[in-house]
Amino acid sequence: MPTGCLIGDSSLNNVDFLELIAEDIEEVEELMRSRSEGYHPDLGAAMEHLLSAGGKRIRPKVALLMGKLLEADQRDLILLGASIELLHTATLVHDDLIDGSLLRRGNPTLNSDWSPAATVLTGDYIFAQAAELAAEIGSTEVMGLFAETLAVIVNGEISQLFSRKKLTSRKAYLQRIYEKTGSLFVLATKSAALLSGSAEERIQAAVVYGREIGNAFQIVDDVLDFTGTRETIGKPIGSDLRQGVLTLPTLYYLEEKPDDQVLEKVLAGHHNGADLKEVLGRIKASGVVQRSLQEARKYSHRAVRALEGFPDKSEKQALIDLAEFIVGRDI
Ligand code: IPE
Ligand code: IPE
Ligand code: MG
Ligand code: MG
After folding, report:
1. What is the number of the ligand closest to the CA of 157?
2. Is 103 left (phi over 0), alpha (psi -120 to 50) or beta?
3. CB of 91 closer than 6 A to ligand 2?
4. What residues sit around ligand 4, an ion, with C-beta below 5 angstroms?
5. Of 62, 285, 292, 293, which is most buried by a Cβ count within 10 Å?
6. pLDDT digits (tens), the chain, 331 positions
7. Cα distance between residue 183 and residue 250, in whole Å
8. How far is the CA of 98 from the centre of ligand 3 (A)?
9. 12-326 architecture in CATH?
10. In 3-state terms, what secondary structure has residue 104?
11. 321 Cβ below 6 A of ligand 2
């Protein structure tokens, strides 16, 4: 399927390259849902609320495609996919609390309704469920990587928190997006490769693929915070700037317009709704969005190149299509 057909797709569930793993994804879904039983009813209800809201499930899809391409055990891949998606879900619960975000996947966030204490505990509960599933795979290597990845994500989130409203270098930005997001895609691809018993060189290539699509994914997420609509991305627009978080489009803009007074006001947190709207408009009109997407495309091409030596199977083509989808998406 040509990439262009995917642009504007409102769902990642019906695209051709994912038909290969449609049934596996159903199993991942069932396994995640089964974890919401047996504890305090509010924990189960919160988990159900989060999972039933949807989400692209892109990380388990990547793990399944890589694992099937390299012929890992199917049950291990289902466990891996479910554990990674739950880890992702837990990070979102905490991220929304940190960001004060009220909308996720088109639904009210937990923190919009619950106290910070209940929200933190629910996130912890989901982390624990994710870890239990990862442990069931029975690989100490994967379990170690799982724990390490969570530490790296936390590092990225805390670096972002402590650098709010501060001028960030592009280098620091790229480090942060790897930590926040690239690392979890690496967990998906590296674990799938480890579970397949592949040779070291192939495991490293799987790492590169995961890292590059993950970084591209976060750059596009940062772009969508400017160009998206609340309806398509299911979360508020402009929230990075509102929080004083400098992402790639803003960094490029600041290189061109270091003296923009309204942006300065927004970043200092002394702004009203009209200032924010003005800055969002200026940034969108300045060409930095295209420049950022061009950067994301570079990552996506590097990901595709990493797959060069992999077996020529339909899963490989699907991983190539997925890398292209990531940069063309509007969801
Ligand atoms: C959102 O991830 C958080 C980021 C790392 C950008 P997704 O865009 O994958 O969110 P869902 O799971 O589809 O809702
Ligand atoms: C993803 O970054 C952070 C996580 C690792 C959870 P964002 O803060 O950009 O994600 P969204 O935009 O809230 O989904
Ligand atoms: Mg956020
Ligand atoms: Mg974002």
Report:
1. 2
2. beta
3. yes
4. 221
5. 62
6. 223 333 334 456 556 778 899 999 999 999 999 987 779 999 999 999 999 998 999 999 999 999 999 999 999 999 999 999 999 999 999 999 999 999 999 999 999 999 999 999 999 999 999 999 999 999 999 999 999 999 999 999 999 999 888 888 999 999 999 999 999 999 999 999 999 999 999 999 999 999 999 999 999 999 999 999 999 999 999 999 999 999 999 999 999 999 999 999 998 888 888 999 999 999 999 999 999 999 999 999 999 999 999 999 999 999 999 999 999 988 8
7. 23
8. 8
9. Orthogonal Bundle (1.10)
10. strand
11. no
Mutation test residue for ligand 1: of 51, 61, 92, 327, the one with most atoms within 8 Å of CB: 92
Residue environment code for 38-70, b if the CB has 16+ CB neighbours within 10 A, otherwise e: eeeeebbebbebbbeeebbbbbbbbbbbbbbbb
d(CA 175, CA 156): 8
221 lines ligand 2 (CB under 6 A): yes
Task: Give the position, in ligand 1's atom list, of the atom nearest the Cα of 89.
Answer: 12
Amino acid at 127: F
For ligand 2, is residue 92 a contact (CB within 6 Å)?
A: yes
Distance 179 CA to ligand 3 centre (A): 14
Q: Kindly list the domain boundaries of the chain, sorted by start residue.
A: 12-326
